Amino acid sequence: MAFPSISRRKSCTFLTYLIVIFQACNGFYLPGSYMHTYSPGEEIFAKVNSLTSIETELPFSYYSLPYCKPPGGIKKSAENLGELLMGDQIDNSPYRFRMNVNESLYLCTTPELSENDVKLLKQRTRDLYQVNMILDNLPAMRFTNQNGVKIQWTGYPVGYTPQSSNDDYIINHLKFKVYIHEYEGAGVEIIGTGEEGMGVISEADKKKASGFEIVGFEVVPCSVKYDPKKMTKLHTYDTVASVGCPQEIGNSQIIREHERVSFTYDVEFVKSDIRWPSRWDAYLKMEGARVHWFSILNSLMVIFFLAGIVFVIFLRTVRRDLTRYEELDKEAQAQMNEELSGWKLVVGDVFREPSHPKLLCVMVGDGVQITGMAVVTIVFAALGFMSPASRGMLLTGMILLYLFLGIAAGYVGVRMWTTIKGTSTGWRSVSWSIACFFPGIVFVILTFLNFILWGSRSTGAIPLSLYFILLALWFCISVPLTLLGGHLGTRAEPIKYPVRTNQIPREIPARKYPSWLLVLGAGTLPFGTLFIELFFILSSIWLGRFYYVFGFLLVVLLLLVIVCAEVSVVLTYMHLCVEDWMWWWKAFYASGSVALYVFLYSINYLVFDLQSLSGPVSATLYLGYSLIMAVAIMLSTGTIGFLTSFYFVHYLFSSVKID
Fold first, then answer.
1. In 3D, which of 78, 49, 80, 195 has the Cα closest to residue 466?
2. Beta-sheet strand order (sheet of 91-98)
């Protein structure tokens, strides 16, 4: 009789959990970091990220320049894997804000600028370096007018050089405008993740949570010349008279030897109707929506065109030929075999082992891994889980996904190997090669680029400790999982060919034009679906813009997969029709050749759109990262095309009844 009471107890417990879950779901939000409310007068300190430039693409530490240091010393913020790889170095700063208190404060006066200080400041100014400041996880934003158009930027320049002068002037006075929203803590429960950790505002904390939340952070940079004798008498955070940005060059702070630079700032708090969940909208304004739609419509036109060709191949050609072939009796089939032409003649050679089968299996395995990583990452980003507030999370997520998808890479690569060879002998070697092929290429390129970054003393250089972490992740997670996937691939039943392979290979008829010309030309169709979105991606990477139209990117990715599959199938059928049974590698590169056009477009972007990029070091970095991207695209698109063509050929010849 104890069972009913136990059952009731379990039911009550389950209902209690359901009630708690439903209560928690009332205000669930995943913005990237949990909301922080500040009481009036509460101190908030801004943080500073690495100095960045669209001219050099070499990030440097904020404190590599003679700026004011925090009273308690420089403290680095905890950084994730993605932030370290991206060259972010977030430190504390002396800029102090008191919630809802407007004030004008003095920071410090530097010692006399040395020759090295002047040289460094001038170089950073002329290379258009930006200071990236962060308050409550929001980057500082500034607005400029160019030809009557209001342009939005993140960060502010180190200095500026007037057109009518050869002198450089340092930005030493900042006018901050902090937008705040009054939060009363009514009926909202917030659960979030981010660099601050996890936070929950419960019923008991609602009264404590009442206060102000920061929803905007703007800066107006100025250069102001102060009298160093007067300023050195002040202490940090002493109140000073508010000043405007001087219009005359003579009132600005020149960068010159033996000059002493005084740093000050103004803070103005402005109440705003913007709510905390919407505060990133100002940074993620989607511009050029029509261009994205044009890209999608262009891709759809290509897809329908190719789909029409595939439709014709299947319904008008293949089905008709197979129906005729199956209706004939054996004598008529034998007579017909002598008169056959096209793909039906290569029935005894179509599944002949390709050249370099191991390399093909390795590239297909790595392609599966990269494609899976890209699809899952973009889906999660499109659903809003990859918030820009969580810096480095996108790259961190991609790396972790790639590591764990090693099991899929090993399985597909080894199963393809056993299918081609008819035996699982050598599967360990294939698995090891899959685990080391693409990561090895990336490792070699990154190491070469890292020596360049080390030589430039840039924060973009990967620290030696991070190298060991990456190697540990590679050999302790990716390699074992790839070997496990390979083992599962040997246990799976190999794909059986529908026809036997002749002992003597059939001679391939000579053609007027080389087959690789058609393969290279096929890559233009997938590139046509990709290149518009590629422009926005390159702009976000190299021009310091936020890219957050992952919904469009997901649609473009799906269209790209369809186009790659269709292009490869059409090209494979064309080769079989001219009695070319060596289709394996051609099917891979028919869609994989899009990578060549991506790399050429990257060079075009460097020459015509990144004209500000200066120096061989910056160009080498750009080309190195572009090469990694091109190799990844080649493996991914090539794998999509090859696997589609393989199953197309298998289906095509499984319908042929031949003795």
1. 80
2. 91-98, 43-48, 133-135, 138-139
Q: Where do we find the tokens 């002949």? A: 352
Reference 409, options 356, 460, 485, 354; nearest CA is 485
- Matching residue, tokens 């420089």: 74
- Report how far residue 323's alpha carbon sits from residue 311's, in angstroms, rounded to the nearest whole number: 17
SS3 222: strand
pLDDT in the model for residue 193 = 36
| Least trusted range by pLDDT, from 22-36, 340-354, 568-582 | 22-36
Q: What 3-state class would DSSP assign to 182?
A: strand
Q: What are the residues whose beta carbons fall under 8 Å from the beta carbon of 79, sequence distance 6 or more?
A: 88, 89, 90, 392
Interstrand relation of 173-183 and 262-271 (parallel, antiparallel or unpaired):
parallel
- As a whole number, mean pLDDT of residues 610-618 equals 76
The number of angstroms, rounded, from the C-alpha of 188 to the middle of its chain's C-alpha atoms is 33
Q: Is 119 helix (H, G, I), strand (E, B) or coil?
A: helix
Collapse the DSSP code of 153 into the 3-class scheme (helix H, G, I; strand E, B; otherwise coil) and give the result.
strand
* Alpha-carbon 517 to chain mean position: 32
* Among 153, 85, 128, 131, residue whose Cα is nearest residue 625: 85
Residue 310's alpha-carbon distances to 321, 466, 562, 571, in angstroms, are 15, 49, 12, 10
- The mean pLDDT value of the chain amounts to 82
Q: Which residues pair with 138 in a beta bridge?
A: 135
- More confident position, 397 or 86: 397
Structure letter (DSSP) for residue 66? S
CA dist., res. 280 & res. 397, Å (int): 21
Give kind and range of the element (H or E) at residue 9. Answer: helix 2-25
Cβ-based burial of 338 (10 A; exposed 0-12, middle 13-18, buried ≥19): exposed
* Cα separation values, 22 from 8, 28, 346, 383, 430, Å: 21, 10, 63, 21, 49
Q: Yes or no: say if 408 and 425 are a contact pair by the CB < 8 Å rule.
A: no
CA of residue 175 relative to chain centroid, distance = 33
Q: Is the Cα dihedral 519, 525, 531, 537 positive or negative?
A: negative
pLDDT of residue 190: 40
What's the pLDDT tens digit per position in 422-457? 888 999 999 999 999 999 999 999 999 999 988 888
Contacting residues for 352 by C-beta, under 8 A, at least 6 apart: 501, 505, 581
3-state secondary structure 501-533: CCCCCCCCCCCCCCHHHHHHHHCHHHHHHHHHH
- Token pair of 485 as six digits: 């996937």
Q: What are the structure tokens assigned to 594, written together?
A: 């899009």
* SS3 annotation, 262-318: EEEEEEEEEECCCCHHHCCCCCCCCCCHHHHHHHHHHHHHHHHHHHHHHHHHHHHHH
Which residues lie closer than 8 Å to 70 by C-beta, 6 or more apart?
Answer: 45, 92, 93, 94
576 or 2: which leads in pLDDT = 576
Euclidean distance between CA atoms 220 and 156, whole angstroms: 8
Q: Which residues contact 459 (CB under 8 A, 6 or more apart)?
A: 50, 59, 60, 61, 87, 88, 89
Q: Which amino acid is at 432?
A: W
- What's the CA gap between 284 and 546, in Å, rounded? 6
Q: Calculate mean pLDDT across residues 492-520.
A: 83
pTM for this entry: 0.81
pLDDT tens, residue by residue, 96-146: 999 999 999 999 999 999 999 999 999 999 998 999 999 998 999 998 877
Let me know: does 78 contact 388? Beta carbons within 8 Å.
no
Contact 220, 174 (CB under 8 A): yes
Distance CA 179, CA 407 (A): 48
Tell me which residue of 584, 654, 571 sits closest to 310, measured CA to CA: 571
